[in-house]
Specification:
The structure is a single chain. This protein has 278 residues and is α+β, with helices and mostly antiparallel strands. 24% of the residues lie in helices and 30% in strands. It is globular.
């Protein structure tokens, strides 16, 4: 009897461990900042879409942190049994619509306006173009109108990259991704996938509200944020009046843009962008 109890206990532990592992974030590839020093001639470049990242694990759609995205059944009906990485997106400068749509626990008809834009096939073998070809071949055989493979072009060098970035920004786009096409897929932060923007962005947790003064009297003046590094600072610019009247709550994760850091690790010229829910 005692042996059976021990075996049952071990089974429960194994089951809980499996659930914990399944609930963790997916092993995604993460881009590094472009500094201008990298030799990017011959790499592939594409527009960086400002949507919600969607990781398809072969059976479910997940956020970058491993939360389930409750996509309608019709949306994922033609998806393959292998992994995909892409961006859930509608159009430029439309992040809030996408976030509110795809992170809703009950999918709405707004999903009819969402597209899934693939930029990687994580488990496929071979170079970058070979991996994308695997997804392209699948959706050729399983047509799905709301799925797209993000267009890639060969970067001829820094001047070509700068010109492409200007074009993307002139259209209201966020930035550009450049990627070494010759390597096998590997997860984690990599110097072989670079994000190119005229400003950087990062996230911080709201830990306090500071009251406004003058024209902002009676409203929020700034948010005190804690970064992953442990640094705390006050973010006071980039907010609308409505956002100051109803600021992000304590514990919210917010995104802000900035340009470099002070010697104390505080983001310079920081400006609020949005609340992140994924």
């Amino acid at each position: 009897m005692e042996l059976k109890k021990a075996m049952a206990f071990l089974f429960v532990l194994s089951f809980l461990a499996a659930l914990t592992a399944a609930a963790g974030p997916p092993s995604l590839q993460k881009a590094s900042p472009y500094t201008g020093d990298q030799a990017i001639a011959g790499w592939m470049m594409s527009e960086k879409l400002d949507g919600i990242r969607g990781y398809w694990n072969g059976s479910a759609l997940l956020t970058r942190k491993g939360k389930t995205i409750h996509a309608p059944d019709w949306f994922v009906a033609g998806f393959p049994p292998f992994a995909l990485d892409g961006e859930l997106w509608r159009k430029r400068n439309d992040f809030n619509f996408v976030q509110n749509t795809v992170l809703d626990a009950v999918p709405s008809e707004n999903w009819r306006q969402i597209t899934y834009n693939i930029f990687e096939v994580p488990d496929a073998k071979g170079a970058f173009n070979d991996r994308l070809d695997k997804a392209s071949q699948w959706f050729t055989n399983h047509p799905t109108p709301h799925v797209r493979i993000i267009e890639q072009m060969v970067c001829k060098g820094p001047d070509h990259l700068t010109a492409f970035l200007k074009k993307v920004e002139s259209l209201g786009g966020e930035g550009v991704i450049v990627k070494n096409p010759d390597l096998e897929f590997h997860s984690g932060r990599t110097p072989y996938v670079l994000k190119v923007k005229n400003f950087d962005d990062m996230e911080g947790e709201v830990i306090a509200h500071r009251p406004g003064q003058g024209k902002f009297n009676g409203m929020m003046g700034s948010l005190t944020l804690r970064l992953d590094s442990g640094v705390t600072f006050n973010l006071g610019t980039g907010f609308t009046i409505d956002q100051r009247k109803q600021p992000p709550p304590i514990g919210a994760i917010v995104t802000f843009k900035y340009q470099g850091f002070t010697k104390n690790g505080i983001p310079r010229f920081a400006s609020y962008l949005r609340v992140r829910k994924d």
